[in-house]
Amino acid sequence: MAAISRDEVAHLARLARIEMSSDELDHLASELDQILHAVDRVQEAAKDDVPPTSHPLPLKNVTRPDVVVPSLSPEDALSGAPAADEQRFKVPQILGDAE
Amino acid sequence: MTNIFKSAQEMSSALVAKEVSAVDLANEHFDRIEKVDGDVHAFLHLDKEGALAQARDVDAKRAAGEKLSPLAGVPLALKDVLTQKGIPTTCGSKMLENWRPPYDSTVVTRLKAAGVVILGKTNMDEFAMGSSTENSAYGPTHNPWDLSRIPGGSGGGSSAALAAFEAPLAIGTDTGGSIRQPAAVTGTVGVKPTYGAVSRYGLVAFSSSLDQAGPCARTVLDTALLHEVIAGHDPKDSSSINAPVPSVVAAAKKLDVKGMKIGVIKELGGDGFQKGVSERFNEALEELVKAGAEIVEVSCPNFEYALAAYYLIAPSEASSNLARFDSMRYGLRVGDDGSHGAEEVMSLTRQAGFGKEVKRRIILGTYALSSGYYDAYYGSAQKVRTLIMRDYEAAFAKADVLVSPTAPTTAFKIGEKADDPVAMYLNDIATIPVNMAGIGGMSLPCGLASEDNLPVGFQIMTPAMKDDLMYQVGGTLEAALNSKWGSPLMSQAPALGAK
Lengths: 99, 499
Prior knowledge:
heterodimer, A: mainly alpha, Histone, subunit A, 2 strands, B: alpha/beta, Amidase signature (AS) enzymes, eleven-stranded mixed β-sheet, 39% helix, 12% strand
């Protein structure tokens, strides 16, 4: 049985904000199915009494003294922007329908 | 006489003795790149102007009698996943084709402070996802030992630059083997330090709990010299370890393994490993025994699940990390013609900007993290991670260091595995457990496989924060093998650019 359907892949692509052609969806659905069958075996090893590990180090929050230090200038911060206007990132319309 | 075939340490001595200037040394390497990189394609961008300015600065300081770092004036190739201010940083992706970062990564800040001369940026699998450098949006890199073969990945540009004598030093990054496997298949040395030993500030993130930058070179000592330049605590990376860096240069010079226990991991060998790879690996073990080490066999039964767990954890983290490429603040933007809203522009940009493997992993990661599947996939993979760490703990109770072949095969042909992602993922079977546990790993050459005359890598794994031990064992093994062969393995590499 297929682990993942073409419709599910289309849904995931929408969640991940990646536009996909019909061909891409067909191809990816079959590849993901193979990959999921290969990775499925993690469930054999994952017994209830095994705690999960999310990170190799015991992380704790790190803070620094609240003092002003030099940071990027507005010009530098905007230097890679696809579009900028008056020291701001200029983006396509967010609310409502586009024209 | 040209200096390019020397080790970094020999180049450093020549600079100190004023037999060559840093400017001349940089130019010799640019000449070499000009001659061979059309065939190898290790570099995506050359920064001749910046490199020569840095070299002139080092020469002026040396002439003025200033005290300089051991690697001052020595050239280096930088993997294109680390930011360098004003220099293109593409990560091998169309998404960042014209991006010039406004800041230096900490690795670059430290290289510059040490006077290292950065020649340019090297090719890689897109966003470091791959084992062959075939996933670069800018075309594959070719293995200098056989131009029809892959140089490993994701850091194939860095390893190929070393093997082609285009640079004596390189920086790589290793999430599942991207430093060590390229080193193995090109006959060079690569180290993935303990997680947190080298700052990730300015390293474009793929899988944050696994990513680690590290040093690459043609000798163990050169790798150690570079390690000491880039490692150390950085307040800009909250997962950076705040402890002294082990003395890896001193360890590389020890040349002594008497009484050390070396554990061979039973599960990382035998079936699935090329015959010539196993032969060279076993011969290298004999050299360590002759040098006074004791070999013990250890078992890590949960390693059989490591690959599956990695291909859930790394894509999950990637699906989150790569959400930043949204076309709003930097990078590619597609479809912004007034007829599409922001979300549509995002989706069109990500369709055009990401390659096949990156899309595959983002979708896989999105799936593994989605409600209803999280426990079965991402949750189970995290449990496997615990089991792998326990296996290492038990193994390190029996041995000082652990060893295995670095990769199951020698370099394969470009295109050979491009259409079979599961077969491609098997390249990383011996390198992935190291990343999962956050420990240190080195690959160094241990000979040429009898079937195909291509380099074989020997992997040394050490407990967290004991990176010096892999340099001690690696340095000893390298010296023993060089004396057996009569010269370093790289001297057998074919000549390039002979047209």
